[in-house]
Amino acid sequence: MLSNLTVADLDGGINFVDIGCSGDLDKKWEPVSGLINYVGFDPNEEECRRLNAEPSSFNSRLFVPFAVHDGKEHSLYKTHSIYCYSLLEPNMPWLDRFAYNNLFQVEGTEQVQTHRLDDVDAIKPINVDVIKVDSQGLDKRILENGQRLVDQALYIEAEPGFTENYVGEDTFTDVDVFLRNRGLRLFDLELFRSARNNPLGKVSPKQQLMWCQGVWLHDLVAPSVVFQPLTRAKALKALLICAIGDFLDYGYELAAFFHGKGLIDDNEFKSLSEKKTWEL
User: Fold this and answer.
1) Which residues pair with 194 in a beta bridge?
2) Which of 18, 37, 73, 258 could form a disulfide with 60 if both were Cys (CB 3.0 to 4.6 A apart)?
3) Cβ neighbours of residue 206 under 8 Å, at least 6 residues apart?
C-alpha cells in the first residue's frame, strides 16, 4: 500500500520545508524523493540561484535566499566553519574548553535582514508536512515565528544544543517544551559529544553531550490535539512518514485512528498490521 502511493494520492506530495539547508537530505528520504515538494532556505542568494538551476529528483524544488528568524536585522557571525555560522555569537569562553573550538572562531560579521517563517510568500499557500531546522541556536525562536506551519506539520526535525554553545542559544529543553505545548512528541534522538581540550579528551570513554538531532511527531491521537484539516491525503502522508522514520507501532496506532474516521478502508487497515506493508 504505502510503497505504491503517488503524488495524486498525497494531494500533490509531501511538502518539506528545510531551514538552514546544507548538503543532501538524510538517506531515509531517498525512497520517497519523487513525492517531495522541497523548499530550502539559505541566506546566500548566489548559492540559491545555483541550486535552483541544478537537476533534482524531487517532485518540485525551490531554494529561497532568506535568513529565517524574527523579521528584524541581525549580525551574522561568520565562523571558521561555514556550518557554524549563526545569528548568535559563539560562546567562546565555554567553547574554548573543547577540542572543536577552532570551528567557532569568528572571522567576520555581516548585517542580514531576517524573515519570519509565517510571512514568507513562497510557502504561504502550502500546507506543510515536514519541517527540518538547523539554525545554530535559534530553533525555538524560528519555530515560534512559524506557528502556522508548526501546527500543520506531521514531522519536525531540529538540532538544538544541550548547553549555550552560542550566547543566548535555544537549548534542547526550550525546543522540546515548545513543541510539546503545540501537540508534538519526541520520537527519536541522535546524540553528539565533544572531547575536551586536554590530553585525555580524545581517549576519554565518555565525553560531554553537546547537541542532538531530534525528531518530533504530531500526536494526532491525543484528545487534546486539534489538527485540522485531517484529510485522507494528510492521513496517508502521516503513515508514509512513520514508515520513513521506522515508527511502525505509532504508524499502526494512527492507522486505527484513521480507520475509525473513515480515512482508510478496511483492506488498507488490515494490510497495515503486517510489517511488509511498511517497507518502502
Assistant:
1) 208
2) 37
3) 193
Contact 240, 154 (CB under 8 A): no
Average pLDDT of the residues in 191-210:
95
Higher-pLDDT residue of 43 and 175 is 175
CATH architecture assigned to 16-228: 3-Layer(aba) Sandwich (3.40)
Name the CA radius of gyration of the chain, rounded.
20
Beta strand ranges found along the chain (DSSP E): 14-19, 36-41, 60-64, 67-69, 73-79, 106-116, 130-133, 155-158, 184-194, 208-218
Contacts (Cβ under 8 Å, ≥6 apart) of 24: none
Q: Which residue type occupies 121?
A: D
For residues 22-53, one letter each, b for 16 or more C-beta atoms within 10 angstroms of the residue's C-beta and e for the rest, the string is eeebeeebeebbebbbbbbbbbeeeebeebee
Cα angle 107, 19, 141 (rounded to 5 degrees) comes to: 85
- The helix/strand/coil state of 94 is helix
User: Where do runs of H (alpha helix) occur along the chain?
Assistant: 45-53, 92-95, 139-144, 147-152, 172-181, 232-245, 248-260, 266-271
pLDDT in tens, 54-105: 889 999 999 999 999 999 999 999 999 988 999 999 999 999 999 999 999 9
State the DSSP code for 71.
S
Q: What mean pLDDT comes out for the span 211-238? A: 91
* CA dihedral sign of residues 89, 83, 153, 61: positive
Which residue is listed with cell 572543536?
A: 100
pTM: 0.95
